[in-house]
Amino acid sequence: MKKFLLLALLLIPMLAGAQASVNWHDETRDTARINEVLKAASGLDRRVVVDSIARMFLGTPYVASTLEIEPERVTVNTDGMDCTTFVDNVLALARTVMEGRSDWRDFIYNLEWMRYRQGRVNGWPSRLHYISDWIVDNVGRGNIKEITSSLDASEYRVKSLDFMTEHADLYPALADRDNLEKMRDVERGYRNHRYPQLAVVKINKNNLAQMRPGDVVAITTKTPGLDVVHLGILTMVDGELHLLHASSKAGKVTIDPRPLKDHLRQNRSYLGIRVLRLAAD
After folding, report:
1. Whole-angstrom Cα distance, residue 168 to residue 109?
2. Which one-letter DSSP state was computed for residue 189?
3. How far apart are alpha carbons 260 and 154 in whole angstroms?
4. Rounded-to-integer distance, Cα 20 and Cα 73, Å
């Protein structure tokens, strides 16, 4: 009995520390929903986990800038998501399920592990803001695989990333000189960055057949200095791939009614796509 009490006393500060390191939107609702999703997805075939979890968030309101809270900590908001937080929450949940875990604390660990450089929060610049940076870091650590270069008709592009520091007024955190200089250091690593892309005009039945529900789609843009303008997850509707995403236009997480290729071709600012897959999938 004494050993049990001692163990309990030792665990209390550890659990309190885990909670204190999180910026919660609503701790009670967030932890309950996380545990609910983990329970619902447990036991699913690994090949359908990402798609299934993504569908569990259909109807969730679109809310931008939920991560811009000081101090920089792991932020959790299951009541509102933008395209990026939707994808990273779904992947962290899926990773947790594939590990055979079912507690919100395990999800928090995986969310930090995938959202931040080398898996650890170390101030605002440690968050992987550019999707190319997020891909390089997470592929390097074995969290995700990029399959873009294996798709029929894919090609390579070269682009320098500096949009954030060139438009620092759009990012309140960059008013801090230290944050600004650290982001410039990040961007220096992405001068003349070479990355694979499947151009919108080259999407066809052959390369669509190489993709599958649960794959992450990063939509590349013509905007100078910026690599990716939108994220979503592929899902199947009536035998065709559609984009499941947090849509600012729809104001919620939704499945676009148009097949993926039609959705992409109707936006002139889109150049192409990069396709990612959870490594454990």
Report:
1. 30
2. T
3. 16
4. 9
Is residue 87 within 8 A of residue 216, CB to CB? The reply is yes
Residues 153-180 pLDDT 10s: 999 999 999 999 999 999 999 999 999 9
**Where would I find the H helices in the chain?**
2-20, 27-41, 49-56, 83-98, 104-115, 131-140, 163-166, 177-188, 205-208, 260-265
Whether the model clears a pTM of 0.70, i.e. scores above it, the answer is yes
DSSP run (H or E) holding 209:
none
What is the tens place of the pLDDT at every residue in 217-254?
Answer: 999 999 999 999 999 999 999 999 999 999 999 999 99
Strand partners, 275: 217
CB atoms closer than 10 angstroms to residue 14: 9
> Can you tell me the distance from the alpha carbon of 259 to that of 116, in angstroms, rounded to the nearest whole number?
32
Please tell me the total number of residues recorded for the chain in this structure: 281
For each of the domains in the chain, give its residue range(s) and CATH number, in order of start.
Answer: 18-140 (1.10.3670.10), 144-278 (2.30.260.10)
**Cβ(277)–Cβ(147) under 8 Å?**
yes
